[in-house]
C-alpha cells in the first residue's frame, strides 16, 4: 500500500477550467503541498490548468501510473475504471458521490465498479469521500481546498468514513500541537476498508497514534485483532450511536448501527480508546503524545486555589489520588513563598506567587518525587503575563520528557494567545482541568490494560467435543435446535453445572428417578414445538411426592402428544439468587458473552455486562464486579456471600463453548441459581445458526 | 449597594512605588478601564505613582469617600478599617489574604475586622479575593493586571469566591461573545455574601444573566428564594463536590462541602442552572443569550453528513426530536441542490453545496417552519472559505432574532479564526455539536421549568396542630424524642396512614385489642432508651394467636422494665412493597424530603430522590418517577400496579409537617408498605432538634 500513500505519479480525472470544478482543488492541493511526483490531468474538455494541459482521454497517458484520483459523475466511473485498468493503474481513489449512499441505481453502479476493479486488480479508495491526504509527502488529494499553513505535520494518522469529519480532524489535530501524518476519507468502503488501512498504518513508521472515525463497525472482530497486534494507541470515534442518526447514516455512507453496548465493551477489551466526541478524541491524542500515566498518584499545581478545587473535583471523579506531600517537601516549598499566606498541600495553590522561576523550581521538585505518577500544572495568564508564560510550557515539556511522567499543562488565557500557542508549540495544551483529568485517566487505563488485562492468558478446558458435534449435527439435520436434554448435556460436557436431572420415558421409571434425585422435582416437556415451555404448562414445579409427580407426568405427556422424547425430571433448587448467563453471535464482533442478575433486576434495572469471547479470567471477574447489582451476590443484609468463583468459571467455559462451536447462534442459561457453594443452571437453551458453521 | 459598584471616589490602600507591589495593579486597572471617579492612594511610604502622590495616612483624606480598596498585610487591616470608619467610608473592599482561610490567628483578625466594621457601619467585600470589577463604569479594582482590550462589556454578571476563578470567567465570558457587566470576587465573605450581591444583581438593569461560582453553599434557602424571585437566568458553578477537594477548599476560602445530592436537587427546584465545569457554564451563558428553546423539535443543518450524525447522536442523548420534514419542504430544498447527490432530510446534509447564499435560503426556510423549536447550523470552513463564512453568522443572528428561536451556530474552523470571531461578533459560536445540543437542552429545561413546575401551587392540608405542639413540647421538656405512639399520632394527624395500632397498658386488654385489629399483629416496645428496637428484641412480629401475643407481651414488658409506657400492638401488613419516606433539616437548605424503595434496593442500589420542602404535587410525582427502581411499583412480571397516588399524597403531607414544625430535626417513616390500594406506614421515628425551634 506504500504505492497508494507515496505514489510517484498521479492522474487526476475530472478536471476542467471551470472555476467551480471540484477536481481542480485536488490539483491545487497537490501543488500547494509540494507533492513531488508526476501529475497528469484528465477532463472532458481540453484546456490548461495551473500551466498544464488537460488530456481528454486516458488513452493518451503512459502505462503504469501509480494512482488515479477520480472525481466525475458516478455513472462515468465504471468506464473510467475500465480505461485505468487498461493503462495498468493499480490504485484508484474515487471521490465521486451518487453511489449506494444515494440510490438503488447508485448501488448497482458500485457493483459494476467493483467488478471491473477486481477484473483488473485495481484497489479502490472510496467512493463518496475526499480520498487520501498524506501530509508527509504532499500527496494531498482531497477535493476541498486545504492550506499547508494551517496543517501541521505530525504523528497522528486518521481514518474516517466521512469527508467532512476528515476535514474537521485535519484542522483539530493541527491545532492540537500533535499534527497529522495521513488522513484517509474512506467513504463507502466499496473495496478497501478500515482494516486494510489500519494494518498499513500499524506498520507505517511515520504513524505513532492512529485515529479512526466510524459510523458503523462491520468488521468488529478483525478490528479487535488488528488492535491487539500493535502497541500503537488506537482512538476510535464511533458515531451513529442513537436511533435518530441511523437514518442519515444509512443515506450518508450506507452505515448500519451496531448495538452500542457491544461496541463499547469490545473496544475496551482490545484497548481501543473510545472517544464520544471530537473533544475527547483530541484530549486522548494529546495525552497519548505524553509519557504514560503509570499509576494513580497525582499532584495538582495551580495558580488559583479556586481552579485547584475544580481540578481536584475532576481528579476525584476519575479516581485519582492526590498524592499526600511529605512534611519535608512541604517545608521546602513553603520556604519559596514570599508572603506566607498559602498552605503548601496537594492541590498546591501557587497563589499570589508572581515569580515564574519559582513555578519552575516547584514543578521540578514535584516531578522528581518518585511516587508521583502525573502532574496537572494549571496556569492562567492574561495581558502582560502571557509572553513570559510561554517559557513555562517548554519547562513542562522538558521535565515531562526527562522524568517520563505526564505533565498535563492546563492554560486559561486569551483565545488568540491559545490559538498561537497551540499552533507554535509542540507540547499539548489543555484548557480546562476537566479535559486534562479525563485525558490522564485515558492514559492510565490504556497503560494498565495493555500491561495487565490484555496479558492475562486464556484458560483452556479439555472437553470431549465429538459427542456434542454429533448432537448438533443431528439437530441440524432435523432442522431443529438442540432439545432441553441435549442443551443440558452440552453444558455438562463443558463443566457448567446443571441441577441434577434425568429423562424419563416410561411412567414406571418415575419413582426410582425421583428417589435418586431426592427432594422436590420439576417436570419439563421435551419437544421441539414448545419453545415457551412454562407459558404452555410444559413445566410443572415443586413436586414433592410421587403421586403429584405422576399426575404431572401424565399432563406433560399429553401436551407433547406423539413425541417420543420423554419427560425431563429435574431437582428443584429453591435456594440461591437467580442470575443469567448468555451468549450470542454478533454479526460484526462474533461471539459475545452476557451476564446479569435474574428476575426483577434484569427486568427493571436492565443491568447486564457483556464481553466479546474468548474471555480470560480477569475479564470474567470484571463482568460480575462491574454490575452494581452484583453487590447482592456478595451478601447484603447479613446474608452470607455467594459463590462468585463458580460463576467466573462458568463464564470462562461458556466462552470456550462459543469459540469451539461456530454453529451456535446463541445460548441462554436462565436462571442459574447461585448458592453459598456452587451455582447450578436450572434451565438452558441453545440456538443453532441457520447455515452450517465452520 | 449602587455606591459600592458605581463609586464616585475610591481610596486604594496599600500602594507603593515598588514594582512588585500588588496594590499598584489596582490603580493601574482603574486608569486603564477609565474609571471616572476620584482616586486616592494610601501607602506606608510617601511616593509618586502614575503621577499621583501617595499619602501615608488616611487622616489626610477628606471625609466620605465612597469605597476603600485595601490590600495590606492581614494584621494591619483592623487598624486601617478603624481609620476608614473615622473618615466615614462605608464600603471596604478587602483583598488581603492571611485570614481565616490561613490560620487560627487569621480567624481572630477576621473577627476583629468584622467587629470594627459593624461599629462604624462599614460593609465589607472579601477578604481574600480580588474584589469588585465593574466593566460598565471602569471600577475595576482587581489586583491582577487586566486589559480592557481583552475584556468585553456585556450582559453577564458574576459572583465568585475565588479570585483565580473570577479572572478565568472574566476571560472566558469575554471571548464567548456575551460579555461581562460586573464581577465580584467574594473571598471569605466575612460580611457581604452571595445573597447580598445576588439581590443587587437581580435588580441591576445592566445584568441580564447572573453567574455564580461557589465552593460551598451556606445560605441555600435564601439562594433558592432569591432565585425564585427573578426571571433572570442564574447559572451556578458549584465546585468542591468531592472528598479530595474538601481539604484545599477549607484552606482556600473556608468552605464546607454540602451534600452534593441536596445541592443538585435544590438548584433544580429553583431553576438555577447548574454548570459542572467552566465549559458547561459558558455553554449555558451562550444559549441563554439566544431566544428560548420552547419545545423539543429540532432541525440539524450541516455541511458535513458525518458531523450531522455526530450532532444527531447528541440530539438523541438530550431527548430532542428531529423534526420530520414534510414532503413539500423536501422538494423545495431539493430543487436548490446543484448536483443531486444528497437526500434532503433531517439532519439535512448540505453536502458539497458550496453556495453560501443557498445556505442562507435553506436556513430561513427551516427557521420559518412554525413547528420547529430550534436549529443547529453546523458549519465548517478553512482557508479561503473562512472570510465569506463570516456573513453566515450575521444571517443566523438575524433569523434567530426575527423568528425568536435559537439558531445554535456550530463552527469548526481554524483556531485563530475562531478566536477572532468570538471576539468580534456578538453572536455566540459553539464549536462542537455536543456543546450546542447540551446548551439547547439547558434552554429547554429552563423554559419549561419556569413555565410549568415552578408555577404549580403548593397544596394546603388542614391539620389540628395544637395537640402535636403539646406532644413535642412535653418530649422536649423531658429531653427525649417523641416515642413511637407520639410519632404515629403526629403522622396520623397529618393524614399519613399508619397500620392500625393501639397501646396496651395491661395484659388483660391484649385479647380485646387483638380481636379488634384482626389478623396477625406485631408487638413493639415503647421506651426512650431503646432506639434500635428490633436489635434488642423489642419488636416481635407475626403473632397470629393470643397465646403467642401474651408471651411476647411479657418479654417486652421485661425489656422495658420500670417504664409505664405500655406496649404497642400493631396490625401486621404482609402484602405490599416496602418504600421509605424521610425528611431531614439541612443546615443550608432547610427541610429536605426523601423517597426511596426499601430493603435491598436502598441498601444495594442506594437510589433515593430528594426535594427541598415545601414541594408541590408535580415535584412529589417527580420524586417517585425519577427513580429507576420505581418501575417496581408500577407492576413488573405481571403484577398489578401499586398505589402511587397515596405515596404522592403522603410526600406532600410530610413536606407540610416539616414546614409546620421547625423543631423537627428529622423523620424516618420506614418501611411504608405500598399496596394496590393505599400505602401504610409500619414504623416511624421523629427526632427533635436540640435547641427549641421557632
Low-confidence stretches of chain A: 249-257
Quaternary state of this entry equals homodimer
| End-to-end gap of chain A | 31 Å
Backbone CA Rg of chain A = 32 Å
Percentage beta strand of chain A = 15-25%
Strand order of the largest sheet of chain A: 3-4-2-1-5-6-7
Count interface residues per chain for the largest interface.
A-B, 99 and 99 residues
Shape of chain A: flat
Helix content of chain A: 25-40%
Structural class label of chain A: alpha/beta
The biggest beta sheet of chain A reads: 7 strands, mixed
Overall pLDDT score of chain A: 88
Number of strands of chain A: 30
Describe what this molecule looks like in 3D:
The structure is a homodimer of 694-residue chains. Chain A is α/β, with parallel strands linked by helices and 694 residues long. Chain A is 38% helix and 21% strand. Chain A contains 23 helices and 30 strands. In chain A, the strands form 5 sheets. In chain A, strands 3-4-2-1-5-6-7 form a 7-stranded mixed sheet, sandwiched between helices. A 7-stranded mixed sheet of chain A has the order 9-8-11-10-12-13-14, sandwiched between helices. In chain A, a hairpin with a 2-residue loop joins strand 3 (47-49) and strand 4. In chain A, helix 3 packs parallel to helix 4, helix 11 packs parallel to helix 16 (433-451) and helix 13 runs parallel beside helix 14 (386-403). The longest helix of chain A has 19 residues, at 433-451. The two termini of chain A are 31 Å apart. Residues 249-257 of chain A have low confidence and may be disordered. Chains A and B meet through helix 5, helix 8, helix 11, strand 16 and helix 15 of A and helix 5, helix 8, helix 11, strand 16 and helix 15 of B.
